[in-house]
Design a protein that fits this description.
278 residues; mainly alpha; 9 helices; 73% helix; ferrous iron transmembrane transporter activity
Length: 278
């Protein structure tokens, strides 16, 4: 539930930031009547995202056991691709997101109402669909079906509260630091999902080695212990992983975490050409 809460918090805060930027732009430019178009676009994106999440759950339940394992493996790899792209995109665009969104909205206002709603819809739907896929991938193997729903709900509610407080300037947090720390934690979550994808491939007999364990520390980490459950929820730690699972976790987690935390090179402006008088 901890990992799913983090997914809801991170994705939810991105959505609330996007919406708050669009709302603040219209309010400050004295265009409040256009807010209904923004909320219409947000509501449509939210409805499609929820419907997509339900479709995933209902559709997969009708597959055979082997096909379920195979689909869950594919969903895991897609989720890992989404979260990897998302954290690096956010690190690059966080400083310029507001200016970019305001520019898109200004252009949309010149086009018409559908364009205004589309800006809000497109800004939210990407995050919403990502959240649905990440939620499905992270919730795999959870015995209690209520915990993932509680985790994602609490994460989204926390994000909404933070977004509201930020909008009214009641609290100020360093968003760059926030996204750096949550991004690093999400890399570990993604590494666990990546590992789980390979486990599904082994269970569907696409890969062998299901009984070839890398290590077994079950005596130190009993499945019912709270610390074992916490590690399993955050980084998909299992006390008896296979060799392929362990290699997959390390092969993704270490290089991606290093690349994400590596300081970005400062942008150097192009040198001004020197002209000489004739």
């Amino acid at each position: 539930m901890t990992a799913i809460y983090l997914i809801g918090l991170r994705e939810g805060l991105e959505i609330t930031l996007v919406v708050s930027i669009l709302v603040a732009f219209l309010v400050k430019s004295d265009r409040k009547p256009l807010l209904r178009l923004v909320w219409a676009g947000v509501a449509l994106a939210a409805a499609i995202s929820v419907g997509f999440a339900v479709l995933l759950q209902v559709g997969i339940a009708r597959l055979s056991s082997t096909h379920q394992e195979l689909f869950e493996a594919i969903a895991s790899f897609v989720a890992v691709a989404f979260v990897t792209w998302m954290i690096f995109w956010m690190r690059r665009m966080a400083r310029h997101m507001g200016r970019e969104l305001r520019g898109r909205m200004e252009s949309a206002i010149e086009v018409g109402p559908v364009a205004i709603a589309s800006v809000a819809f497109l800004a939210v739907i990407r995050e919403g669909l990502e959240t649905s896929i990440l939620f499905y991938a992270a919730a795999q193997g959870t015995a209690d079906s209520a915990k993932p729903l509680i985790g994602i709900s609490l994460g989204l509610l926390t994000a909404i509260v933070l977004g509201w407080l930020l909008y009214y300037s009641a609290v100020r947090i360093n968003l760059s630091t926030f996204f750096t720390w949550t991004g690093a934690l999400l890399v570990l979550v993604a590494a666990g999902i990546f590992k789980y994808g390979f486990h599904d491939l082994q269970e569907s007999n696409v890969l062998g080695g299901l009984n070839n364990l890398a290590f077994d520390v079950t005596s130190s980490f009993p499945p019912t212990a709270w610390y074992a459950e916490l590690l399993r929820g955050m980084v998909n730690f299992t006390p008896a992983p296979t060799v392929i699972e362990t290699i997959a976790w390390l092969a993704y987690g270490i290089p991606v975490l290093v690349l994400f935390l590596w300081p970005a090179r400062p942008h150097k402006p192009a040198p001004t050409p020197v002209t000489t008088a004739p």
